[in-house]
Amino acid sequence: MSKESVMLIPCSGIGKVHGLIGREAVFKVKGELRPQDTDLACLAEIVTQDAEVQERMNGRLTITVDGCPKMCAEKNVRLVGGEIFASLRVVDAFRTHRGAQAGSATELTSDGWQISDELADQIALKVDEARQGGKGNG
Ligand code: SF4
User: How many angstroms does the Cα of residue 24 sit away from the middle of ligand 1?
Assistant: First the structure.
């Protein structure tokens, strides 16, 4: 894995559809859209200050994806000194989908997949900006 690859950290959000949308979006970026340019880490390993994860994060730009305004991923990456390039929120992705029925904490509807896919596209663009030396919004 390239040292310049961008770290992607989704919140855990286990009990909410917002968390599932965020995780699926991140998995699409890593699995399909920008596999060579990204790396994943588990939020729990960051919260527990896992030494191996901290080493992997060291010197890399990070994009956090949070399900709701509590911003668990962003807050915890900041707590361990991670360098946040961009912080995205699933709730913002809903703004262009008023009234959407996105599904549940365990299963997305077609609306939910559409929101997740659009969020994945946004994340991929942020990855490109980070790799090109952009300023980010973190
Ligand atoms: S940001 Fe919101 S959805 Fe995500 S883990 Fe925290 S409380 Fe749950």
Answer: 15
State pLDDT tens for residues 62-111.
999 999 999 999 999 999 889 999 999 999 999 999 999 999 999 999 99
Q: CATH number for the domain including 31?
A: 3.40.50
Q: Which domain holds residue 33?
A: 6-129
Question: Within a domain: residue 138?
Answer: no
The answer for residues whose C-beta is within 8 angstroms of residue 122's C-beta and 6 or more apart is: 88, 93
**Which residues form ligand 1's pocket by a CB distance below 6 Å?**
11-13, 16, 18-19, 66-68, 70-72
* Distance from C-alpha of 24 to C-alpha of 33, rounded to nearest angstrom: 12
Q: Is residue 1 part of a domain?
A: no
Index of the ligand 1 atom closest to the CA of residue 12:
5
Atom 2 in ligand 1: which residue has the minimum CA distance? 68
Establish if 98 belongs to a structural domain. Answer: yes
Closest CA to 86 of 21, 131, 45: 131
